[in-house]
Specification:
Radius of gyration: 14 Å
Number of strands: 11
Helix content: under 10%
Strand content: over 45%
Largest sheet: 7 strands, mixed
Distance between the termini: 40 Å
Number of helices: 0
Order of helices and strands: EEEEEEEEEEE
Shape: globular
Structural class: mainly beta
Length: about 130
Amino acid sequence: QVQLVESGGGLVHPGGSLRLSCVVSGFTHDYYGIGWFRQAPGKEREGVSAIRISHGITYYANSVTGRFTISRDNAKNTVYLQMNSLKPEDTAVYYCAAGEWMDRHVYWNHESEYDYWGQGTQVTVSS
């Protein structure tokens, strides 16, 4: 059974940094993708970034390009989201999600591409 556990959220001032972690367990192969989504109060959940575990190919939303970096540590079965230059509009609950993408083309920011979801971690950017 695939499980995802996020951690690393918290309160940070504008301009600050946080690193989110997503520990992944249960996959028997590396042909899956991990995505980070976020949902702010009153807004729809949106894709932030994603990574293909087997190839290391990364994807980013325009709103976070240049500020956020997604990476993986295969030895630790962990995917990270390094968030720098945080803004108040980054405030949201952040979720990691996993999908068995194999080698097919995916729309990485579509929730339908993901089969498993973590419980979420709150990120608040405020002065």
